[in-house]
Design a protein that fits this description.
- The protein is elongated, with a radius of gyration of 26 Å.
- The model has no long low-confidence stretch (mean pLDDT 83).
- The protein starts with a helix and ends with a strand.
- The chain is built from three helices and six strands, in the order αααββββββ.
- Helix content is 45%, strand content 17%.
- Strands 1, 2, 3, 4, 5 and 6 form a six-stranded antiparallel beta sheet that branches.
Amino acid sequence: MRKGQMEIIGLVVIVILITLGMLFLAKFALNTKQANTLLLRKGLASSSVPALLKTTVDAGICDGGAVPQLQDVLEDCARNYPPELSRSVLSCEGKHSCDFFRDTAQKLLDSTLGSWRKKYEFRSHLIRTPGIEPIALLDPPVGSEGGCPSTKSRDSSGAFPLPTPDAGLIQSVLFVCD
């Protein structure tokens, strides 16, 4: 009788240990997935900004025969801001450089981050004089529907600086969230 009771107690202890092991495994597996998601969002945000700014505009879209990159269009936007009061040097598709940059950035980010079901918000500010409030070049910011408000769990590319010789410093940042 005692021998049978000891065997049953041994089996119960083994089942409890296996159950605890499975719970710990599940807990660590879920944490790893969450960490991978955070790393993925951070990587997407930090690599998307340089890729966006280095994208070359198709030939023939901008006047003057030059084939600019989007960072050149953004620099022209900063030099000729605000769009309502000045004409941009680069006229792409007959639009002011700020409007063309906004439309193109929206299309490119929608076709990449949007197709992966990631929500995003891209902001770009012009800092003409340190200590003075930066000027929002893209107001409202370029983003997916709903954007990435600070109330959501989001990752950022960090400030991506783009110095211009005569307009000031352009700082762009991309926020990515789920």
